Amino acid sequence: MEKGAVLCRVTAQLSLERLKLKGIPGPLCNMIYNMIDCINGDFSGDGSYSELSDVTSDLRLMVEYPEKFLRDLDVNTISLTSQLLKETVFVRNDEFASLQCAYRNSVSGFPEIALITGESGIGKSSLADRLGKFIASNGGVFLQGKFDRLHRSQPLAVLATAFNAYCDKLILETDSERAKLIASKLEEALGRDGCQLVKVIPTLGHMIVCDECDSNSDATQDCMQNRLYYLMCRFVETISSCTDCVIALFLDDLQWADDVSISIVGEILKSSDANKRFFFLGCFRDDETENGHPFWKMIESVRDLGVAARIVELKCMDKDMVTKVLSYLLCLPPRLVRSLSDIVYHKTKGNPLFFTQFILSLNSEGLLYLSLIHRRWEWDEEKIMSRSLPDDVALLFEQRIDKLPPDVKLALYTLSCFGASIDVDVIKELEADLGVRLIDPLALAEEEGFVNNLNAKFLFCHDRIQEAAYGLIAEEERCLHHMKYGLSLAKLSLNAEDNNRMLFIAVGQINLGGPSAVSNDDERLKIVKYNLAAGKIAVGMSEFHSAFTFFDNSISFLKKTHWRDHYDLSLELYELAAECALITGDVLSLTVLTEQVMKNACSFEDTLNISYTCMSTLGYASKITDSVEIGLEILSTLGEELPRSVSDSNIELQIQATREIFDELSVMDLLNYKMMTDKKKIIAMKFLRRLKVVCHQVNHALLPVITLKMVEITVNCGISPMSPIGFAYFGSFVAKLGDIRGGYKLASLAKSLVTNMKLREIAAQVLFILSDILCFIEPLSIANDNRIETEAVALAAGDVPCACYSRVLYASIAFWSGSKLSVSAELITQGRRFVTSRGHVTSDYYLLLLQQSVLKLIGTAASEIMTEDDLKQCLMDSNNRHVLELYYFQKAFVSFVLDDYSSMKDSANEFFKFSAKSWMLMPNHIFHALIGGLVSFHIYRETKVYLWLERGIKLKSQLQLWAEQGSSWTFENKCLLLEAEEHFCNSRLDAAQATYDKAIASAKAHKLVHEEAVAYELAAKFYFNLSDFSTSLEYYTVAHEKYCEWGAYAKANSIYACIQPKLMSCLGAPSAPPISFMDEVEKQRFSFKTDQRKRKQQ
To answer: Which of 111, 409, 424, 497 has the fewest beta carbons under 10 Å from its own?
Structure first.
């Protein structure tokens, strides 16, 4: 029997060789050989089959993946290292499909971002790279950047890396039409601010032509930061909308991201450009990202605006997955590698990085090897099982690094001090300056699989390798290494071509070293100045978090006697640090810095900058009264005493007296007026402007006092950068007192000064006031177009509040000028998205109130947005008198239109109670006068209380005063309608009848369909009161048509549901309304609701 078995085996072996000579692939030959063994009853071989299902499984693998399981291995070229990463990624197909879905949704108009999370070494970056290849293969652009725990000193370095890479690609195709188009569009979109963005994205400077930035800009730092956000959004919107390419931005290791980079990504995601084709992908370690991380806050904010966030969680491989990966890696069926996979899973727990390194170590130690005889991978299970292995993959890396030659280890230690990557030129500079070999040893480290040299950068192959190398440096020596490298690079940065980048890297190393690593006082002073220089550059880039870090580190390097030994340097550092702390919201640091300056300042003048910062801080913290008190106190010390209270009559006299001064000066005189040179007056103007901002919220009575003081100082001492603000406000006061054209002339002068002096920081505020006055001169719909320009100017200057208020006014005036309610509803929805994305709560309140009114008029349940009780409580909690005034005004208006007399009367009482005297001329005064007058006349007719008649007449007179100088398009029909109502109240029936018809005709001529509808309805009520039911019905019928035309379906329905039956009854006719009219109303309401639901679902 034994001889027969041997003979069978020899015969089988000869058959196997013959098959191979015929070109049959080795794996198939082996299968046949093993099956012959089984036929002969021999099941002892490694490849022997025990079940038919095993044969079937192996054949299926050969058919589906012939390159792995059918073809012969090329023993000369096969390498585990080249295959490991690819094979590990292969097992993430479900997760990859989910990422593809998020990408397709995002570029198809349903904004969505994707986030890959999991522990270190799980394969997040590899999966992201796989998606990047998919995006690129489909014509997209995949930009990427990586945050680093150690390399965080350079402001916005990660975003700059990503966008610089994009600009580099465009520069390489300079002659292409696509590159020319993008460059042209970027120049147009960024305008004169392109230079600001070039500071962050240097390569952009080779694409666009831009002027030098204005170093004397008087912008506040919050405006500068907002402007940076705006420019980054414009950059992304432009590059993603002017071509068919999708721009995908991938940011790795978000757990180490800085606040500003996160904020910029959030702003890009929240911007609502409909043509934008942008996708964001991020990776983060879930065990190192706490709930309070800015990243999570950003995710919540974009979710609130309808941007979906898909989180793909990666887990370690289970046993079956480890078996599958090994099978594909070793080109062997799963049944042959299962014993090895059990050992590997036990050792690595299925962590992909640990798995990869363990397999490589087995290969390098000869425990997993390629058999030349059998032309397949083989292994020694006993030795592998007995091999000791650390619990953490970083320790495994440490063991491997420790076996390297000393010079390679030193090079890796040096590289690890800079984080996950560093430019090759930086390492070359260090090598030359320190006289230590670094480049050649790093090349050896690259051969060993520790680092890569890609795109002129040295990169660790994985973060855990960097962590391992850094961990091998003795803790007490790390600071010395950092300080040595930092000082070397700082010295070199003085002559470097890209000296800013080199300085940031140098200072980052110095600060990691810390004060304890400084050897002498001269070195300490140099370090202080290095940090100061880096901080100023960061401020110029509008990156105030990094700037504060530089200034704060600079202060930490100062000697204890620095106020005595280096007073000017100390004062400058503390002031700059305080300004940055204000912008970043670091109240504790700001308090400490302020106390130190106030304690050590040598003069009152030296405290002014810190006092201004402190005043601004209190304003931002809603401590408005305290902020006002500081401002008044400082101004008093500067010799600019402001009265705490002034009578209205006295203010009017002062305005008139000041106006007479302007009458003596021509426009050219003012445009060529002398410039202010007195430093105290210049700082006083700065404080006055800040005081004006905070008084807007709590003390309107001080506004004219502050404005008059600004104008007085300007007239006496010359023009300052703040003067145009004073002129614009003064023009508004003059217009409010009755001289609209004169006020407009003064506000136009302010605009001309802004243009001549290039004062872009206050341009939006001046345009805003000018647009307000223009609403009284031009038709509302025409004047409203200026709001679009004002918003754009405000955003470009970083003036977010002005941009938000412009959006509010645009939507509001569109409504009051008679836009279809469906259009108004959409404008309000867009406006709320705009202002909430910028965190401007007050603007959102204004739009929410208008939205409630519009939805009630349409007939859509406003409670879907917010219930009436919740809304009122929310507004009461805001403690904002102007918001409450608007709430009661809108409620009185809707109640008036919908014939809810009781609610109208109560709301009107509250509205007049909350109404405060305003010295400025604003568009809402027009609508308040019209609706307030109509409501007052209505209540008088019901109550016969003379106060209401008096109010109505007063408001009518105010409109008539504006009409004398303003646009007949805006005022004529309103004055006529109030005049008709007054006639009705005083029983002048013939006059009332004629005036109602004039008001109707005027509204029709001026295409104010909403006011035409109201005029028809009020005339119908007038005729009903006279018992002229036939005429009343005619007017009600036309009113119904006009309300339908406007889109006020709830009102149109109420006319037929309530009024018309009553009239028909009086006329003795059937009371059923014409079905055709009602069907049309319901059809339009249903259409609107359907559109609303679609938008909500999207």
So the answer is: 497
